[in-house]
Amino acid sequence: PILYSYFRSSCSWRVRIALALKGISYDVVPVNLLKDGGQQFSAEFKAMNPMQQVPALKIDGITLSQSLAIIHYLEDTRPNPRLLPQDPKKKAQVRMIADHIVSGIQPLQNLSVLKKMGEKKTEWAQNCIASGFQALEQSLKHTAGRYCVGDEVSMADLCLVPQVFNAERFQVDMGPYPTITRINKALLELEAFKVSHPSRQPDTPAELRA
Cα dihedral sign for 46, 6, 163, 147? Predict the structure, then answer.
């Protein structure tokens, strides 16, 4: 497999965690979202992913984009360890939390939106994340065990950790979100979350390396 990734992309990080949890070795092709006006806009990359976004994964003779579509494919073809519970209610809760983050928070504060916000980009990102986290904190009070849904790592957790990383980058006050903070801390102790961390990628700038 070949993963087209950017070290600080939260969508790429989700997929890196899934690959690590499932023990899938892969090669990384870095796509720098800032350099050369954004390498994702090159004709070569656009031919592979018309949305001009990372991640993209070449695997089993196909190329997939969109982080959750990639994770679902990995789940279908390499089911151990499970990232979706078998219980229908828990599975729905996992998907709900994942969608809350990948649809309701992350797109509002991603690079393409922030570029349009100019000087207000930090304030905008803080407001979008805080609004989303207020709702997420309430949901997690009903679903969480050690992790987002019960005591097993799931797709929801793969979405949570990169989003908390974004929140900390934008200096969001995490005080009002004790459940999110607790789960994030527990997940960051797991090896798959450590090796996939933005500070430990091939394209991580020297000053940001762990």
Answer: positive
